[in-house]
Structure formats: structure tokens, C-alpha cells
Amino acid sequence: MPTTTCPCGTTVEGADREALAAAMVEHCGIAHPEWGLSTQAALNFLDAFDRLTGPTARLDTVGPIEVRPAASCVADVVSFFDHDAFADNPGWASCYCRCHHVAAEGWGDRPAARNRDELESGLRDGAMTGFVATVGGRVAGWCNASRRATMPRHRDDTSADDQTASVVCFVVAPPYRGHGVARELLATTIEALRASGATAVEAYPLRNPADGAAAYHGTVGMFEAAGFDVTRDDDHGIVMRRTL
Predict the structure, then answer these.
(1) Residue 123 has pLDDT above 90, yes or no
(2) pTM here?
(3) CA distances from residue 35 to 19, 59, 86, 91, 202 in whole angstroms, order as listed
(4) CB–CB of 141/185 below 8 Å?
(5) Most confident of the following: 9-13, 38-42, 98-102, 212-216
(6) Phi/psi of residue 2, each to 5°?
(7) Dihedral angle, C-alpha 64, 70, 75, 80, nearest 10 °
(8) 44-91: per-residue pLDDT in tens?
(9) Inter-residue contact 198 to 163 (CB < 8 Å)
């Protein structure tokens, strides 16, 4: 009988894949109602186990870090999200960095395959702007720095949306964490955005992220060191901004 393990450590089982997903929804409805787990999200979670094959042990040292536009290596970026980016966090593996590009309503009902397709097409047609860090030719990290106009959760529907980039996500594969990958990504991203005609760049870090995963927006200290200033800090969150 197929089984899986909830992040809380509870073993869940079902007669087949669909039954297992239903059992997960039932378990989470009782044990973790705040998650609001949908059947599609449970199926995404199960699918992640079949494709997350990347290593999870952190490397003591890494070689030189190189940063390049994600549009120059789209297949490698998609493979990074397929196998490596969330090797230790399957619950987030269905996102493919699409959550900030779609309305919050209905997000939990999106199949991972749809997000994957939109990441690939977005990078190829310019609807998404990202940068990747590579070490020894292998993708180690990602930064999403698309125009604010493409992000319903951040745009303000003014003309500035087209000239403002929003840095919304850093993903570093487990072996490369703690080696400055995000800082290298941010430095190159800022210069590339300036060259692309962006007039400003925004970021949305949490003040006190609970853990490394929760700091996927980047940290206040990292953005301050890169010349960003806090322009908003209230119940809706922090906004940091740098003019280019």
C-alpha cells in the first residue's frame, strides 16, 4: 500500500495514489487545518517525491560562483526546479517560482505541471526575468527579478510597474547554502536590471524569518548591504527599494 510521510512525521497511507492524496487531505484537515491543503496540492506533494533526486547534504566548500541570465539556459533552470531546488522541501516543489505571478485565489489548485510550463514559457518569451548561479557548470541557485507589472501581489497599477523590478525569490539548492550564492545573485541582478532599462528594484523580505526556507525573499541585512532602503514596514510587510 502506498505511503508517505507528512512534514509533521505522521505516516499516511492509501490504497492508490488518489486514495493516498485523499488521506493526506484528511490528515492535514485534522492536524494542520491552517495549511488548507487541497487535493491538487496533495497530488503535487506526492509527485515531488518521484522527481526530487538532488543531493541534500551541504558542501563544506564550493568552487567559483558564476551568475548568468536564466533565459540563456532555460532547460537547466527547469531541471533545477524539477530535481534540486527543493530536494529537502517537497511541499514547495510544485511552485516553480510562479506564485507571485498569479492571483492568490486558486493557487492551491494549480497542478505543478502548469507552473512548470509557465516557468519555461515565461523565461523564453520574457514574461519572467530570472538569474541563476552556477558552480562547476551546475545550477546552484536562482533569483526571480521580474517586472512588477507581472506580479498581481505587488504591482500598484501605475506606469511605474513596467520600469520597476521586483526581487521576490531566492532558491539555493541544499549543497550550496551558506556560501554566499544569494549575495552573488543579487549583485549581478542589480546590474543586469539597470542595463535592461529598469529604473528601480524592490524587495519584500521578512523582518524575522522563522528559518532559512522562510527567508526565500532575501533578508533585510542583505538588501541593506546592497544599497536598498526600507520604504514601508507595517502590518502588510516590508518593502525595500533601490533606485537604479
Answers:
(1) yes
(2) 0.92
(3) 19, 32, 19, 11, 28
(4) yes
(5) 98-102
(6) -60, 140
(7) 60
(8) 888 888 899 999 999 999 999 999 999 999 999 999 999 999 999 998
(9) yes
